[in-house]
Amino acid sequence: MCESFTIFAHRGARGHAPENTLLAFSLAFDLGADAIEFDVQRSSDGQLVVIHDDTVDRTTNGHGYVRETPFEKLRELNAGVRWNTPQRIPTLAETLALVEARGGAMNLELKADSRGDALATAAIIESALVELNQPMRARLLLSSFELDAVAWLKSRLPWLRVGALFTGSQWRKEDMVSRALDLDAEAIHPNIRLILPELVERAHAARLRVNVWTANRRPTIRRLLALGVDGIFSDAPERVVIERARFAARETA
Ligand code: G3P
Ligand code: MG
User: Best substitution site from 50, 52, 229 to test ligand 1's pocket, by max atoms within 8 Å of Cβ?
Assistant: First the structure.
């Protein structure tokens, strides 16, 4: 197993707490995750907020598109409503502060919306990331399905570690690897349905890490560990913690 195998808590420990909230992020580190994964979008007035969907409808007590709602209105919503616990939609700044305080790592996923304006969000993200100190830069991995936005950010911030997100059966293994290399990415982030031994081999031969999303069942986690992937995104990071320890113990036995 790779020395620096990474356990990413998907949207925080979303199996145990409201996704993409400070509560879920804090719990993720309590459960032993190495990193949190979270999704970043912008409000109508250009503030960066951490939320997964285009709209606030599924995860909060509000309605409407994130990009059409002013920041102050987003902050009035309860992102813990499905879990019966009051939680605000976090800002990127709050999330960065939590990661810094906990000494963990992070995967910032830039989300596009259906209008395809990922570059506008990327420009705001750039202005936030440029302020990061050196230790925090090292702990950040940025990814997106919007590969043009990733390329733009990488051109603006050459120090930025980036991962290329892939989903959908149209992606052939050689195309994922070559696209990631074009981006000067350190990793590919394929959907678990795209994972085959040959993809892991080909990515590793190109010196790319392979971080896979999303694995929640223990047999699935074990299969991925046996395939030699470098990171797993999970809603239940504690399961990966246990399986990683078992796998490492077997390897050294
Ligand atoms: O970054 C991995 C994963 O989060 C991508 O899918 O839809 O959960 O953001 P999604
Ligand atoms: Mg995500």
Answer: 52
Q: List all residues 6 or more positions away from 138 whose beta carbon is below 8 Å from its beta carbon.
A: 161
In this predicted model, what pLDDT tens digit does every residue of 160-201 receive, in sequence order? Answer: 999 999 998 899 999 999 999 999 999 999 999 999 999 999
pLDDT tens for residues 68-77?
Answer: 999 999 999 9
Identify the burial level of 252 via C-beta atoms within 10 angstroms of its C-beta, where 0-12 means exposed, 13-18 middle and 19 or more buried.
exposed
Our mutation pick for probing the ligand 1 site, out of 165, 166, 209, 216, counting the most ligand atoms within 8 A of Cβ, is 165
Write 70-77 long-range contacts (CB < 8 A, 24+): 70/43, 70/44, 70/45, 71/43, 71/44, 71/45, 71/47, 74/43, 74/47, 74/49
pTM above 0.90, yes or no: yes
Q: What is the pLDDT of residue 3?
A: 61
- Residue 143 buriedness (CB in 10 A; 0-12 / 13-18 / 19+): buried
Q: CA 230 to CA 202: how far, in whole Å?
A: 13
d(CA 182, CA 148): 11
